[in-house]
Task: inverse folding
């Protein structure tokens, strides 16, 4: 704007219907302030006119100082349609909204000389718009966050205009279907009556309501049938024309299914009552009326409809009458919990046939605790009671017979106690034998060995070849006898009941066993490999004996001129393997397999090798007492496991050791 004509500018500003304040672009002092500006600013003219603009409006400076500077620098206007300000009017602080414009006023050379500040109070319009927006926001929040499924259809093609999450969940679709005709977005709805109902509402404006409507949707690629209560209400535009429908839907599938199940349960209950040959009855407390099923009418010999239930009491056996009457009265008392349970005898008034009935009932109380109705069933237990009497008689007979058997068992227990004493004595003798075997039997062997060595030292130079052979045989025999005694003692010492199970690292056990055979392995060039071995709970010494014997067995029975190879492999035993060695099914076992390439054994020998003193080869071929594998079997069984060699053949031995993963 050109500002050369100062008089015209002044008149324009002062008579403008909007608030205007003209500032000098260099000093930012207010040169002109019209009445409209003062009204909006809420400050007196003397506080603005002739003063530095930001001294007059310090509260606005942090928000608009840079904008004003930009207008002067660049020569481009700045506007804010909803500038918020706090003003004091009538001694009270108010929040006002105004349209604010900083307009540059340039001379003919295009230089910004002045800035016109234009303000218009639009507080009323802003507040009205905010109220509308808040109302719309609230409506959207209610719509989209409603726990009830909601949607809006528009137009003759039933376009899905809006839908909340609950409704999309029912459809089994994402929000990508919004804005599309529903019959295209959810094609399975073409098979329903929903489009016809929608068209009817568009045409007539009538509200359409449906309860428990069965509708099929495709969810996750499969058909899903649900039950829904829904309502179609027409939507009107400003001219009163119907342009769409708002639908509210409630998924009542669970309720319908539950109701169907209840009906089915009631039907099943009636069938069960009939199958169990039960009679049903009901007492109406208000009228004292008694209702019987057909079966009870037959049993009692009369129909008590519209009669006082007390009239049935005389039909009961005399000694049962008062007890039953008291039980009914107590069952109608809230303190009883409403339960009634009695057994009584009735006498048919015509046939005089007696029946024993077991009746049970439950009282229904109103909210104040007053009895309303007692419902119950009755069962004819005449035969059961007769059988019970017979059984009681038989039970008495059996009791007497059992007493006689108990007396016999008492005598047998005394004999067992005597046998136990004898076993304890025998165990003591066995322990004594072990001591003798470990000391007294080995002592003569040591003396024989010592004297043979002394004799050999004295007469070596005088012995012929045959005599020397005799001495060597004596020495070999004493050595074998000593080893045999030691092995027998080791075997007998295995099943110690007081042995403590601790954690045993089988990796360390295998490594320690190999250290004992390092000389043999170096001499034979044997190669031993294994995968990762587990930690188990066991007896460390026995585990060492097990690995020592099995590795030693493989190093003993090797093939000439063949490098011995031993592989130890651990895995989890399969259910079939556990059954094959007759271990407890349902438990987890490690399978530790020792495989070698030695001389092996015949398949028919794989069972007997675990018998004590059993050897498959002559002592001249392989040394040993025949106890090592028997010890292995006993060690594994001590650990609740098993060992077998069924996979062995003449190409090598295979020993499978099964040990529980968890030993308590």
Result:
């Amino acid at each position: 704007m050109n500002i050369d004509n100062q008089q015209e500018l002044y008149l324009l500003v002062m008579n403008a219907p909007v608030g205007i304040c003209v500032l000098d672009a260099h000093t930012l002092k207010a040169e002109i302030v019209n009445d409209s500006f003062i009204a909006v600013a809420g400050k007196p003219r003397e506080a603005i006119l002739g003063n530095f603009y930001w001294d007059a409006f310090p509260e606005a400076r942090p928000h608009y100082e840079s904008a004003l500077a930009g207008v002067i620098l660049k020569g481009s206007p700045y506007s804010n349609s909803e500038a918020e300000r706090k003003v004091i009017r009538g001694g009270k602080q108010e929040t006002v909204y105004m349209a604010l414009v900083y307009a540059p006023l340039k001379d003919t050379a295009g230089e910004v000389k002045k800035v016109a500040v234009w303000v218009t109070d639009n507080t009323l319009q802003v507040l009205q718009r905010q109220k509308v927006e808040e109302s719309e926001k609230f409506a959207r929040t209610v719509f989209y966050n409603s726990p009830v499924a909601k949607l809006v259809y528009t137009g003759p093609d039933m376009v899905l205009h809006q839908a909340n999450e609950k409704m999309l969940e029912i459809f089994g679709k994402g929000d990508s279907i919004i804005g599309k005709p529903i019959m295209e977005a959810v094609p399975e709805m073409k098979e329903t009556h929903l489009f016809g109902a929608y068209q009817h509402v568009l045409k007539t404006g009538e509200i359409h309501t449906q309860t428990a409507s069965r509708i099929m949707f495709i969810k996750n690629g499969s058909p899903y049938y649900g039950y829904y209560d829904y309502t179609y209400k027409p939507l009107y535009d400003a001219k009163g024309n119907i342009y769409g429908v708002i639908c509210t839907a409630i998924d009542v599938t669970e309720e319908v299914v539950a109701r169907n199940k209840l009906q089915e349960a009631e039907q099943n209950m009636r069938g069960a009552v009939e199958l169990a040959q039960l009679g049903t009855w009901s007492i109406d407390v208000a009228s004292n009326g008694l209702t019987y099923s057909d079966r009870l009418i037959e049993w009692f010999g009369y129909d008590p409809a519209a009669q006082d239930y007390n009239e049935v009491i005389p039909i009961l056996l005399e000694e049962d009458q008062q007890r039953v009457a008291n039980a009914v009265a107590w069952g109608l008392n809230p303190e009883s919990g409403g339960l009634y349970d009695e057994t009584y005898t009735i006498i048919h008034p015509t046939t005089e046939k007696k029946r024993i009935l077991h009746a049970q009932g439950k009282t229904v109380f109103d909210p104040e605790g007053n009895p309303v109705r007692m419902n119950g069933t009755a069962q004819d237990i005449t035969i059961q009671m007769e059988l019970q009497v017979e059984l009681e008689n038989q039970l008495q007979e059996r009791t007497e017979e059992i007493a006689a058997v108990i007396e016999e068992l008492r005598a047998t227990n005394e004999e067992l106690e005597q046998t136990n004493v004898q076993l304890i004595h025998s165990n003591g003798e066995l322990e004594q034998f072990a001591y003798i075997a470990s000391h007294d039997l080995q002592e003569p062997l040591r003396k024989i060995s010592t004297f043979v060595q002394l004799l050999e030292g004295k007469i070596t130079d005088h012995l012929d070849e045959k005599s020397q052979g005799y001495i060597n045989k004596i020495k070999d025999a004493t050595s074998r006898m000593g080893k045999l005694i030691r092995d027998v003692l080791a075997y007998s010492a295995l099943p110690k009941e007081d042995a403590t199970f601790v954690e045993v690292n089988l990796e360390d056990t295998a490594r320690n066993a190999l250290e004992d055979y390092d000389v043999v392995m170096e001499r034979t060039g044997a190669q031993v490999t294994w995968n990762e071995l587990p930690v188990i709970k066991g007896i460390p010494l026995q585990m060492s004996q097990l690995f020592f014997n099995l590795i030693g067995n493989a190093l003993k029975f090797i093939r000439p001129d063949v490098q011995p190879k031993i592989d130890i492999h651990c895995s989890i035993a399969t259910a079939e393997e556990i059954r094959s060695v007759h271990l407890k099914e349902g438990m987890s076992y490690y399978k530790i397999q020792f495989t070698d390439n030695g001389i092996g054994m015949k398949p028919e020998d794989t069972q007997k090798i675990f018998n004590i003193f059993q050897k498959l080869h002559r002592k001249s071929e392989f040394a040993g007492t025949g106890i090592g594998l028997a010890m292995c079997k006993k060690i594994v069984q001590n650990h609740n496991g098993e060992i077998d060699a069924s996979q062995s053949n003449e190409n090598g031995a295979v020993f499978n050791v099964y040990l529980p993963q968890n030993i308590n």
